[in-house]
Design goal:
This protein folds into two domains: 2-35 and 146-308, Multidrug efflux transporter AcrB transmembrane fold, CATH 1.20.1640; 44-140, Alpha-Beta Plaits. It has eleven helices and four strands. The chain has helices spanning 2-8, 12-33, 53-74, 103-123, 125-128, 147-171, 174-197, 204-234, 240-246, 250-270, 273-344; strands at residues 43-52, 78-84, 90-97, 133-140. Strands 2-3-1-4 form a four-stranded antiparallel beta sheet. Strand 2 (78-84) and strand 3 form a beta hairpin. Helix 7 packs antiparallel against helix 8.
Length: 345
């Protein structure tokens, strides 16, 4: 792994250009084709369960359990569900089914659900006032993620990046804080760009992935910084490049990807279609975060450190010059006093 790092640690400009190209392509593709919301087909089968608003608020989970147990028994696959939580008298749960679900299966499900809810109403008087209705439809589906969700994700990333910058700058040094913020920002931008460029179906859960990617990259970057601080402390004359290569968080990055990858494979294999796409998106986010924290962070450290050293040297020279001028002024004043005393004598 050190051989790879030896080659990449000097390539920060190349990495930055590649990331810029990926981002530009993602913007162009998204501008032309839009965000891919194709986790659902253009035309899909839906089952809407409408219920009294008060009962919905108190018993939503139990209603969902009745529906989902029945779907599991019928061996039909739910792609995803949406909640219509209205302020009026009625709320609803809409289940979207896999495109392979037949009309016959939908009719059977509708009848079975009506029967199940009627049995519940007979057995429990509280369910008698639920006013539950079930209706199956075939309709064009349009997934629309509210702008507020995007703004929340963006705000969360901005807040995290700012806090990480302040924390690391105080604990380490300013240039370490800049490196941490750069890694968090790069992970955020690149995870979003790769998801859009690869045309991976986008859902609200994709926003969680994009928001979590900077955190994973920051954790890996912090591992590297801890190792680097120990290395530089133990040897003041250590070469910066060799020190940063030896301090790269290789094991930590691989462990995070391996553990996260196995968990996501298990989740994606046994869950609904939308959850499977979430697992794919999350794995992409893990890979991007690992790249940023493992390869980009060491490469970015050297130029950031060089700029910090240059600024420190400049400030040191300025302070020295200021001090020298003050000393000259004092010496001149003392000389004048000495001349005056000599004249008086």
């Amino acid at each position: 792994m050190n051989k790879l790092l030896t080659k990449t640690v000097k390539k920060v400009n190349l990495m930055t250009v590649i990331m810029g190209v990926v981002l530009a392509l993602a913007i162009v593709i998204t501008a032309i084709f839009g965000i891919n919301y194709a986790a659902s087909a253009d035309s899909g089968k839906t089952m809407t369960v409408s219920v009294n608003g008060y009962f919905y608020n108190e018993n939503k989970e139990e209603i969902e359990t009745v529906c989902e147990d029945l779907f599991e028994k019928a061996d039909v696959k739910v792609s995803y569900k949406q909640h219509g939580e209205m302020n009026g008298d009625e709320s609803e749960i809409m289940y979207v089914f896999d495109a392979s679900t037949t009309d016959k299966e939908m009719d059977a499900l509708e009848t079975a659900l009506e029967t199940a809810f009627a049995a519940k109403a007979t057995a429990d008087e509280d369910w008698g006032g639920a006013f539950i209705t079930v209706s199956a439809h075939e309709e064009n589906l349009l997934v629309n993620i509210p702008l507020s969700y995007f703004l929340r994700a963006l705000g969360g990333v901005a807040l995290f990046t700012g806090l990480a910058f302040v924390y690391v700058s105080i604990r380490r040094k300013l240039h370490m804080g800049v490196l941490t913020a750069a890694c968090a920002f790069a992970a955020f931008v690149m995870s979003a760009a790769v998801i859009c460029l690869a045309r991976i179906p986008f859902t609200t859960s994709s926003l969680y992935v994009i928001a979590l990617a900077p955190m994973v990259a920051t954790v890996i970057c912090l591992f590297m910084q801890n190792k680097l601080a120990t290395t530089l402390k133990s040897s003041e004359n250590a070469d910066d490049m060799q020190a940063v290569i030896n301090s790269a968080a290789t094991k930590e990055a691989l462990a995070i990807v391996a553990v996260g990858g196995v968990a996501l494979v298990i989740v994606g294999a046994v869950a609904t279609v939308s959850t499977t796409w979430f697992a794919v998106t999350a794995f992409v986010g893990l890979l991007v975060s690992a790249f940023v924290g493992w390869l980009f962070a060491p490469a970015a450290y050297l130029p950031i450190k060089a700029i910090a050293d240059k600024c420190a040297a400049k400030n040191s020279g300025y302070v020295g010059a200021k001090k020298s001028a003050k000393e000259k002024k004092v010496a001149k004043k003392l000389e004048e006093i000495a001349v005056e005393e000599k004249t008086e004598e």
